[in-house]
Amino acid sequence: MNVSPLDLRQQKFRRKFRGLDPVEVTSFLAAVADDYEQALRETDRLRQELIRSEAALAAHKEHEKNLQSTLMTAQKVSDDIRATAEGEAQRIIRDAQGRSDLLLEKTQARLEDVQREIDGLKLKRKDAETTLEATIATLRNTLEFVREQEAREREEKILVHRPRLAVEKSDKADAPPARRVQGVS
Q: What pTM was estimated for this model as a whole?
């Protein structure tokens, strides 16, 4: 049976002999109706509060779900970025190592080329020194030969221009007879 506070206030009872005090019953019913009305209002207020709390809870659960989804997405993006960065760093390191190795190889090859050039220049210097020494020796020999030739020619000219008698007398007295120069009589 569903009884409202209004039903309690309007309820009428039959009268009987030696029955209950009607004022007392009416005042009790009014008090019960007031309490019942207050209880119904409180229940309604609590129902409204429960509905608001459930709506807030649902909103909070939705926010939590969104936050968890966002957090998972952020974690995935972070992992992807980290993996990409590590891959990129490894690629950069490999590229740098490759360039470094290539540069080292080129430098080593250039060093070997320079060393060969130095060795070639040393050989050319040695050849030039040897050629120069040979040229100097040849020039010395030529100079000595020319000086000897000039000395012989002077002697021959001196012998050719000296008078014979004087030469013969001085030669006979001093030494064995003078040599005769060919072609001169």
A: 0.40
